[in-house]
Specification:
By secondary structure, this protein is mainly α. Helix 5 crosses helix 11 and helix 12 packs across helix 13. The longest helix has 26 residues. 42% of the residues are buried.
């Protein structure tokens, strides 16, 4: 078929413009990731070593997995402030029950995490309580319950099924772990559901306009409840991955997990007001958080200042989202 014939069919032969590329949802997050990497490479050449890049990926693994759950919930215009605490409780349950039976420990941790997700979902959908209040209260409950259950002690896990995701392998001399593969599987599954199934379309519809979604026949409460339940499942997977990376359950771990997951989601282009965003953007956002914390550590910046920088990023990302929404309206 010649050029004239192609023009006759209405198929565009125009090359994508720079403006069109910049309008792509992933363009901004990817540009931010590249800029951050370049800046830290200039400040400290150690940043670009193979070992450090592998370390960044390992450090981003648990937050990256949890960010998938946060992304799904935010797409429905909700939020989960208990996701980090749920993961920590999952690690403690895994470690304490492991002495009886590792498989039983995995079932118990999964059950606990699913229960927390189900309670959050039920309170939001049945009692119509604000997700912020529900999950903030759940965070307080779960954090305290974890300390009581752990007795404020740490528990080491022996090598076996619970540390399986920590097993490493090399790809062209680059060290990776099975936990990173688990992260990619979680993202791939979430991407497929959101982009190739009716359930995914329902999630976007509920977050975009719940009234219109309900009028269209979508069971909004069922969709929202399902998202919170899946959040519990993903928290259990993250707990398993956490023990694979560091085989010790610490009730004080992941203190900034909630902030980091929200940061990853928002920086990745998902709107805090629901209905717009992608898990691929969330993956890039999680890497940005990992690069930022790793790079600031190498430069010698105190952890408290790192938290300040992360908070500033959240505010900046939400501000840009608000500006974008107003322009569209």
């Amino acid at each position: 078929m010649g050029r004239a014939e192609l023009l006759g069919t209405g198929v565009s032969l125009a090359r994508p413009s720079l403006a069109g590329v910049l309008r792509e949802p992933l363009a901004g997050p990817l540009a931010a990731l590249v800029v951050a990497c370049v800046v830290f490479f200039i400040l400290t050449p150690q940043f670009a070593t193979g070992y450090n890049i592998s370390l960044i990926l390992q450090q981003s693994m648990v937050i990256g997995i949890l960010a998938v759950a946060q992304s799904l919930i935010i797409l429905t215009a909700g939020i989960d402030l208990s996701i980090g605490a749920t993961c920590v409780l999952g690690t403690v349950v895994l470690a304490k029950v492991a002495g009886t039976d590792p498989i039983l420990a995995m079932v118990a941790a999964l059950g606990v995490c699913l229960l927390i997700g189900a309670v959050n979902g039920a309170l939001v959908t049945l009692l119509k309580l604000p997700p912020f209040i529900v999950t903030l209260g759940m965070f307080t409950i779960v954090a305290a319950a974890t300390q009581l259950y752990a007795g404020s002690q740490t528990y080491r896990v022996a090598d076996g099924p619970l540390t399986f995701l920590g097993k490493g392998f090399d790809v062209a001399g680059f060290p990776l772990t099975l936990g990173l593969l688990a992260l990619l599987v979680v993202y791939a599954a979430a991407w497929y559901v959101l982009n190739r199934t009716a359930t995914g379309r329902h999630v976007y519809a509920v977050g975009g306009n719940p009234v219109s979604a309900s009028l269209a026949g979508i069971k909004t409460s069922k969709t929202v409840f399902g998202v919170y339940l899946v959040s519990g499942l993903i928290a259990a997977i993250a707990a398993w991955a956490a023990l694979g990376r560091i085989p010790t359950a610490d009730p004080n771990a992941f203190q900034t997990a909630n902030l980091d997951t929200i940061t990853a989601v928002v920086i990745g282009g998902t709107s805090l007001f629901g209905g717009r965003g992608s898990v691929l953007g969330t993956l890039v956002g999680a890497l940005i958080v990992g690069v930022l914390r790793n790079g600031l550590t190498l430069v010698g910046i105190d952890n408290l200042y790192q938290n300040i920088a992360t908070g500033v990023l959240v505010i900046a990302a939400v501000t840009l989202d608000q500006i974008s929404r107003r322009r569209q309206q």
